Amino acid sequence: MSLKLAVFDFDSTLMDGETIDFFAKELGIGDKVAAITKEAMSGRVDFFESLQQRSALLKGLESSVVKRISENLPYMKGAKETIAALKEKGLRVVCFSGGFRTATGYAKDILGYDADFSNVLHEKDGKLTGLVGGDMMFSHSKGDMLVRLQNILNIDKEETLVCGDGANDLSMFAYARTRVAFCAHEILEKEANIIIKEKNLTKILEQL
Q: Is the pTM for the entire model greater than 0.70?
């Protein structure tokens, strides 16, 4: 059975790094936020709790800075080419991110995926309030959204590819035949049937 749907994580998968870490560096708390991110991605800390903690630390960051950083992120080698190749084969390509719409929405037309589901940092008076909401708040969110998307598109598990790097990608691995761990934490590699160790997304195409 051929693949019809590909779902990619954004941070450290389609983009080389973690969006929230770039924001944190502007406030001089890069190391502090990066440490929490690492714990969450390795599965040692609940994703929802870590997202709340990290977003709270961003309180006061200027919205203009958030926009500037979001529009100047380094995309992963091969991201654009891989998405184009999958779409040429007739796949729908979607981005699920525990990160933020300011980044995934901007990258959509650059990288070429069809839709993005992510979170939104709350802003007021031109600054972040430290609050966050959105589509991908919990450790189970990606799996939950994938099932809903499969139902809408009439696509089943056997026709689905998923690709990510961290613990919050685990939930979508349960609903896909083709499970790619990309430069991933051990917790995700254990559930993958394709493991890519090199920072080059086109390596996925060689495995299909």
A: yes
Architecture of domain 5-207: 3-Layer(aba) Sandwich (3.40)
Between CA 66 and CA 120 the distance in angstroms is 11
Q: What amino acid is encoded at 142 in this protein?
A: K
Report the C-alpha gap between 150 and 4 in whole angstroms. Answer: 10
Strands 115-124 and 127-134: antiparallel
- Residue ranges of domains in the chain: 5-207
Q: What is the pLDDT of residues 87-103, one digit of tens each?
A: 999 999 999 999 999 99
Rounded Cα gap, residues 206 and 21, in angstroms? 31
How many residues does this entry show for the chain? 208
**Which residues participate in catalysis according to the annotation?**
9, 11
